# Entry
Amino acid sequence: MGQVRLYIAVSIDGYIAAADGGVDWLAPYPAEQFGFDAFIATIGTVVMGRKTHDQARSFDTWPYAGKRTIVLTTRPLEPPHADVETWSGEIGPLCDALGKSRGDVWLVGGSSVTRAFLDARRIDRLELYVIPILLGSGIRLFAESPVLQQARLADATMLAQGVVRLTYDLWR
Ligand SMILES: NC(=O)c1ccc[n+]([C@@H]2O[C@H](COP(=O)([O-])OP(=O)(O)OC[C@H]3O[C@@H](n4cnc5c(N)ncnc54)[C@H](OP(=O)(O)O)[C@@H]3O)[C@@H](O)[C@H]2O)c1
# Structure
């Protein structure tokens, strides 16, 4: 398997969504202007939480077309989607099952799934797009955890519109 990469946009004060789950504040920063096409070309599988999936289904276009897509959920998808698989339970066995997949794994989020992958030490790389906004409240990128984890800064790049991309490698 390739790397498991958390690729995500985050406010300066550490939020990935407003308190109501909204991401309108990201509209002025379309991912396509920040290297998304090159990124997605390296991805074979996308993994996300149920809330992130349900929100993405409400968008005009399904952002993950053509990619193997796995949604972590304890409930059936309604309606079921032929292009999406579901997974319930431990992260380690999921990653082991992905072992034969081609390409990297994009961990889309949200917060709950990110925490589960971090605690299982199954993320290889963090790719954080820091958006120049202070949301003040919302859904935190990193939920609290007793687990301490070291990271190595691999890259810091200033992009357009004051966006900064921070790339960290994690040691499992
Ligand atoms: N800024 C960004 O780039 C970005 C990217 C992604 C997401 N987001 C935001 O993140 C927010 C959602 O984050 P969130 O933390 O609230 O939710 P989430 O991580 O997207 O989904 C959480 C849900 O996933 C299911 N789940 C999680 N772990 C599981 C496991 N191990 N086994 C089975 N099911 C599991 C549970 O659903 P059930 O038990 O109910 O099935 C849980 O309630 C959204 O507002 C979205 O906009 C932002």
Summary: The chain has four helices and ten strands.
